[in-house]
């Protein structure tokens, strides 16, 4: 279990660093002791549209309020996109997520508001 926890933490750090390279992406939630969940929003895009665009790329995420409306509102958003990490995920998959988000931000594969 310690090895799994350490691996998921490494994925979380790797994924966070990658996501922060996407223009207009804002991470939501920055607790020090955090589970393997990356929540974010993209400027001027509905989270649902980002989720659909990622799904079209073969990338599974959740988008919405995640039954956490009070804390999301406290963070200034109504919903987020949320990839969840587990022991079967890889750094390569996180790189694919970042590449897909860069394509989405460049105007391919999404519907703007």
Description:
The chain has a two-stranded antiparallel sheet. It has a two-stranded antiparallel ribbon with strand order 3-4. The radius of gyration is 14 Å and the shape is globular. The chain has helices spanning 2-19, 47-56, 69-74, 91-105, and strands at residues 25-28, 39-42, 62-64, 80-82. Residues 109-113 have low confidence and may be disordered. The protein has 4 helices and 4 strands; from the N terminus they run αββαβαβα. 43% of the residues lie in helices and 12% in strands. It has 113 residues and is α+β, with helices and mostly antiparallel strands.
Summarize the structure.
This protein has 113 residues and is α+β, with helices and mostly antiparallel strands.
Task: Lay out the secondary structure.
Elements: H1 2-19, E1 25-28, E2 39-42, H2 47-56, E3 62-64, H3 69-74, E4 80-82, H4 91-105
Antiparallel strand pairs: 1-2, 3-4
Distinctive features:
113 residues, alpha+beta, two-stranded antiparallel sheet, disordered C terminus
């Amino acid at each position: 279990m310690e090895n799994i926890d350490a691996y998921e933490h490494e994925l979380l750090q790797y994924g966070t660093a990658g996501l922060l390279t996407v223009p207009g992406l804002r991470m939501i939630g920055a607790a020090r002791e955090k589970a393997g969940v990356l929540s974010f929003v993209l400027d001027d895009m509905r989270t649902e549209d980002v989720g659909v665009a990622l799904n079209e790329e073969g990338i599974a995420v959740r988008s919405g309020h995640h039954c956490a409306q009070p804390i999301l509102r406290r963070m200034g958003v109504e919903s987020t996109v949320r990839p969840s990490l587990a022991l079967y995920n890889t750094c390569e998959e996180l790189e694919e997520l970042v590449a897909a988000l860069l394509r989405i931000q460049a105007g391919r594969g999404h519907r703007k508001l």
